[in-house]
Amino acid sequence: MTYGGLAVVALAVALVVALVVARVRGLGARWWAATALTGVVLTGLTVVFDSLMIAADLFRYDEAALLGVRLWLTPVEDLAWPVVAALLLPALWALGDGAERAGADA
User: What integer is the mean pLDDT of 15-26?
Assistant: First the structure.
């Protein structure tokens, strides 16, 4: 499986979980805005720090398994993981009692 294929599967699972939890818990626009902002910040940090680590030759990718699109030095497939984290972690927290303690908006 390519990095892109794995990223698509992980993104799909995270999105489905986030949508279901948001519906079940009644999470509103404020939760989605905070989740989106978190995803943007994490994605930006991933581009910067992945690029620095790649430039320092700390790790390499199998070029045959990449799509070839890069932001700075970061393969676009790597950007799936901060988005997955931004969707999945708050959703799982809200699924517990986190949303009730934080006063989830409707």
Answer: 96
Evaluate whether 95 touches 25 at the Cβ level (below 8 Å): yes
Q: What are the start-end ranges of the H helices in 2-79?
A: 3-25, 29-55
Distance, C-alpha 86 to centroid of its chain:
5
Residues whose CB is less than 8 angstroms from the CB of residue 53 and which lie 6 or more positions away in sequence, other chains included: 59
Q: CA–CA separation, 29 vs 101, rounded Å?
A: 18
Domain ranges of the chain: 3-98
Average of per-residue pLDDT values in the chain: 91
pTM for the full predicted model: 0.85
Taking 3-state DSSP, the helix, strand and coil percentages for the chain, each rounded to the nearest 5, stand at: 75, 5, 25
